[in-house]
From TrEMBL:
It holds the Pfam family Pterin_4a. Gene3D superfamilies: Transcriptional coactivator/pterin dehydratase (3.30.1360.20). HAMAP family: Pterin_4_alpha. This is Putative pterin-4-alpha-carbinolamine dehydratase. It catalyses: (4aS,6R)-4a-hydroxy-L-erythro-5,6,7,8-tetrahydrobiopterin = (6R)-L-erythro-6,7-dihydrobiopterin + H2O. Its EC number is 4.2.1.96. It comes from Planctobacterium marinum. GO terms for biological process: tetrahydrobiopterin biosynthetic process. Belongs to the pterin-4-alpha-carbinolamine dehydratase family. One of its GO terms (molecular function) is 4-alpha-hydroxytetrahydrobiopterin dehydratase activity. InterPro entries: PCD_sf, Pterin_deHydtase. Keywords: Lyase.
Length: 97
């Protein structure tokens, strides 16, 4: 899988962020977003949905959960950069939240 160039990343980021109130950001060459839920149960239910999708895609998030908050980092280590897979999974995460 080939990494996207910066131009394509900016375009895809704009597209992705059209449909969400909290924007994904480009931080240190990765997509990052912090998701907030009402409580741990809702956060973990969302993580479960994402985990099933991630497994199907064979593309997995780096994430850090404390109570109702999940900090997500998406990058494709295999490609040494951001790929379409990162944007695909990011869009799924938004749709489940
Ligand atoms: C061996 C396995 O297919 C690879 O390690 C896959 C799995 N999931 C992955 N997920 C993400 N986010 N980046 C990767 O580079 C990646 N590589």
């Amino acid at each position: 899988m080939t990494p996207m160039n910066n131009n394509d990343i900016q375009t895809a980021l704009g597209q992705l962020n059209k449909s969400s109130n909290v924007p994904w950001k480009l931080v240190d060459g990765a997509l990052q977003k912090s998701f907030k839920f009402n409580d741990f149960s809702e956060a973990f239910a969302w993580m479960t949905q994402v985990a099933i999708t991630a497994e199907k895609m064979d593309h997995h998030p780096e994430w850090f959960n404390v109570y109702n908050k999940v900090d997500v980092t998406m990058v494709t280590h295999d490609a040494n950069g951001i790929t379409q897979l990162d944007f695909d999974l990011a869009a799924k995460m938004d749709s489940f939240a």
